[in-house]
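User: Can you help me understand a structure? I only have the sequence.
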Amino acid sequence: MPRALRAGENFEIHRFKIMRKHLSIFALLMIAAIAVSAQNAKESKLEKNLREHVTYLASEGLEGRRTGEKGATFAAGYVSNMFQQFKLKPGYTGPDGKKSFLQPFEYISGVELGASSSFIVNGSIIELKKDWMPIGFSPNADISAAGIVFAGYGITAPDLNHDDYDGLDARGKIVVVLAGTPDSGNPHSGFGRFGLHAKANVAKENGAVALIIISNVENFADDKLAMRFDQRLGETSVPSIVVSRQKAAELLGLDSTQLKEIEELNQRTAEGPGKVSVRIGNQPKLEGSLKFEVVKTKAAAY
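Assistant: Let's start by predicting it. Here is the structure, written out as C-alpha cells:
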C-alpha cells in the first residue's frame, strides 16, 4: 500500500510518482506481451509451413509414395524444388556432369517365376499354382531331399512362454507352419512381431533349410503371399513357399476340419501358462525336394 504523506508533502506529486511507477510496470508488461506475441506469430508461420509440406507429402494424391510409382516421383520433385528455393547445394553429379538433388537408384520392381519349379513330396508332384507357389521375396531354392516336419505357428518367444520348436528336431529339414499368429493376428500383442520374415529367421536358427506356410484362405488363388513382392522388405532368410490348405492337410494326414482344429488348439494353448508344443500325433513321415527360381525385375527411380 502507498505510504502516508509526510507533513508538507504535495499530494499531487506523490500521486504522479505512483502513476508513473504503475505505467512503467504496465509498459514492461506490454513490451513482454508484444515480444511473446511476435515469437508466437513466427512459430505459427513455421508450423503452418511444416503443416503444408506434410499435408502434401502425406496426401492421397501421392498414393503412398511407393518406390518407382507416380506418387514417389512427384514427392521427390517436390522436395527437390524446396531444396532449390532454400538455396541448398545439390550433392549428386550425374553422368552428364550436371549437379542435381535427385540421385537415381536401382530397385526391384517385380518378380516372376523362373523356367523350372518343382515341389515333390514322397515321390508325388505337388502342382504348381494350384497347390503351391514360391513367395515373391524368397531366395531361390534347390533342395534335393529333406525331411518335412510341422512346427505349429513357427514361433519361438521365451518372453511369451511360447515355443513351437520345443522338442522338435528341424535341422536340415523343411518346416511347415501355420500362417498368422496364435492370437489371430492381433497387432497389439507380443506375437505381432512374428511376420513371415521373423518365422523364416526362427526356422533358420533351428537349422531348417526351407519354410512352408499353410495358406489361411480357402481359395488358394486368393492368397496374397504367392509371388507377391513387398519393396519394404528384403528376402527371407530361407527359401519360403505357400501351400494350399487342402494340400497341406492331405500331406499332414489331416482333413480340413482337423487342420482348423489344430489352428484353434494352438490358439487356446497360447492363452494358457507354460510353453506351447502342439504336435500332430499321426503325421506321416514326409520327405521332399524343392526347386524354384524367383526372377527379380529391376528398374531405376529417384
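Now, to help you interpret it: Residues 11-57 form the longest helix (47 residues). The mean pLDDT is 80. Let me know which part you'd like to focus on.
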